[in-house]
Amino acid sequence: MAAALQIAGLEVRIGDKEILRGLDLEVPFGEIHAIMGPNGSGKSTLCHVLSGKTGYEVAGLATLAGADLLSMDVDERAREGLILGFQYPIEVPGVSLRVLMEEALDERGVTGNERITVEAERFDTTRFLERSVNDDLSGGEKKRSEIFQMAVLEPKVALLDEIDSGLDIDAVREVSEAVEAMRSPDIAIVMITHYSRILRYLSPDKIHVMMDGRIITSGGPELAEELETGGYEAIRTRLGIEKRAETVEKRPSDFFTDTPFDV
Ligand code: ADP
Ligand code: MG
User: Fold this and answer.
1) Would you call 256 exposed, middle or buried from its count of C-beta atoms within 10 A (0-12, 13-18, 19+)?
2) What is the pLDDT of residues 38-81, one digit of tens each?
3) Which partner from 30, 40, 170, 252 sits 20 to 30 angstroms from 203, CA to CA?
């Protein structure tokens, strides 16, 4: 069976700025992978390009369950089973979470709301269902609601960009448990972050370290330990990778994926 997500030699640029420089990644169904990388390494760009945001020059290959992802329109990618979780989920006043889920299921040809009830129970979001989407939820509750929405929609690949950012440690634990609960033989989960602390609560099948636009090393729990003690510098030193001069540059801020404060 084809991997849920397969990326080979992915190169992404904007003008003369190279952001991804030959990224390779394979995530089989049923697994949770973490991509860890310092700010500016290209993690959000990877999410944007996979989910179909325009404005990038893209070369290389990316497939979703064997189907060519890069040739699909944004809505096609979503219908085929790719979901991107927002770093800062937006509030949608006037649209209840239940209505949002019913409409989304309807689009996919699924009727009846039993799945909504069952998953809401499982992710403890029942009391959010009749409220406007994300209205007055805490940071951790918003992330839990996002994971609940993914569980209802049953994606093939769930990309979670910095799902732990801006959360206190109890919320990080709660969100980690929700991610683990979403694990299923039919879903591949890609959890993207620059902090290693979430790995105290979540045990991904594989950890990939991303720097300067490519995956530079992959491994198991020992990589999390190395990051926790020595940070990215330790990995850079071990692999003999020089720091590139211009890693972080000024650019227009991105409402959905930028960290609004330094944490
Ligand atoms: P990360 O999510 O790992 O922090 P990003 O993908 O946001 O990294 O950014 C990677 C690099 O690409 C950074 O140097 C950033 O400044 C640059 N970059 C991202 N988006 C744009 C853009 N729209 N225009 C120019 N440069 C960009
Ligand atoms: Mg980012």
Assistant:
1) middle
2) 999 999 999 999 999 999 999 999 999 999 999 999 999 998 99
3) 40
Q: Euclidean distance between the first and final Cα of the chain, in Å?
A: 41
Give the model's pLDDT for residue 261. 42
- Closest-CA residue to 190 (of 74, 75, 46, 77): 46
Question: Distance, CA 45 to ligand 1 centroid (Å)?
Answer: 6
Pocket of ligand 1 (CB under 6 A): 14, 17, 19, 37, 39-45, 248-249, 251
| DSSP secondary structure letters along 222-247 | HHHHHHHHHHHHHHHHHHTPPPPTT-
Residue 50 contacts residue 69 (beta carbons within 8 Å):
yes
Distance of CA 178 from the midpoint of ligand 2 (Å): 21
Position 102 scores a pLDDT of 94
Neighbours of ion ligand 2 (CB under 5 A): 43-44, 257
Task: List the beta bridge partners of residue 64.
Answer: 5, 67
User: Residue 246: nearest ligand to its CA?
Assistant: 1
Architecture per CATH, domain 5-239, reads as 3-Layer(aba) Sandwich (3.40)
**Strand ranges in the chain using DSSP code E only, listed in sequence order:** 5-14, 17-27, 32-36, 57-64, 67-68, 82-85, 92-96, 132-133, 157-161, 188-193, 206-211, 214-219
Domain boundaries, the chain: 5-239
| Nearest atom of ligand 1 to the alpha carbon of 161 | 2
Per the prediction, the chain carries an average pLDDT of 90
- C-alpha to C-alpha distance for 250 and 67, rounded to whole angstroms: 35
